[in-house]
Amino acid sequence: MNIIIDNSIRTQRHPGFFRGMSDTKEITVHATGGGSSAGALIAWLLTPGQRKKKADGLFHYCIDYNGDVYELIDPVEKWVYHSSTGKRDRATIGIEIMKKDVRNESEPTIQQYRSLLQLINTLLENIDTINIICGHGRRKKRYGLNYKNCPGKFDWNIITDELISEGHKFKYESEYIFEIERSDEKNNTDS
Ligand SMILES: [Zn+2]
């Protein structure tokens, strides 16, 4: 996985709001619903109209079609608004997957799936309070808001299969992986 740390958003738009490491509980998966590249998306986020929105409508990571991962906001110490559920985003890490189709009906590329899995594994290893991975639309529903087709067409089995192969126990219902067990036992078998 190729991670590119892009500082342009945090220096030119908003760095995100501070949170403690144990505040982070959830990875929220999005898709962009159109967009030619991560670079073009970042440039758009820095246009005057977008810049005015400050920390609203931002996210921590974006995964380009070729699998390159752009880190825009510090996932450990900073939070931004991205899931339409207000300050609940204090507990989330937002990951955007670039998608050609404006309605998110296209499938992520193999490279995007591969990078997403590596990114999820890395975040789970580094932040031991994360116990939920949820689609954006499904997350809105959890909080009584309208479902949104985000990330849209997406094979959730790819994530659940990976978690199983990594030895995680969890529960799953539609676009919502929860109660991911975070045990010391898992850490011991890794080393
Ligand atoms: Zn979304």
Describe this structure in words.
It is built from seven helices and ten strands. 30% of the residues lie in helices and 18% in strands. The chain has an eight-stranded mixed β-sheet with strand order 1-5-4-7-3-8-10-9. It has a two-stranded antiparallel sheet with strand order 2-6. It is α/β, with parallel strands linked by helices and 191 residues long. It has one domain: Lysozyme-like, CATH 3.40.80.10. It is globular. Bound molecules: zinc ion (ZN).
Write the layout of secondary structure elements.
Layout: E1 3-5, H1 8-12, E2 17-18, E3 26-31, H2 38-45, H3 48-51, E4 61-63, E5 69-71, E6 78-79, E7 92-97, H4 110-126, E8 132-135, H5 136-142, H6 156-165, E9 171-173, E10 176-178, H7 184-190
Parallel strand pairs: 1-5, 3-7, 3-8, 4-7
Antiparallel strand pairs: 2-6, 4-5, 8-10, 9-10
The structure holds zinc ion (ZN).
Structure characteristics:
single chain; 191 residues; alpha/beta; Lysozyme-like; 8-stranded mixed sheet; 7 helices; 30% helix; globular; binds zinc ion
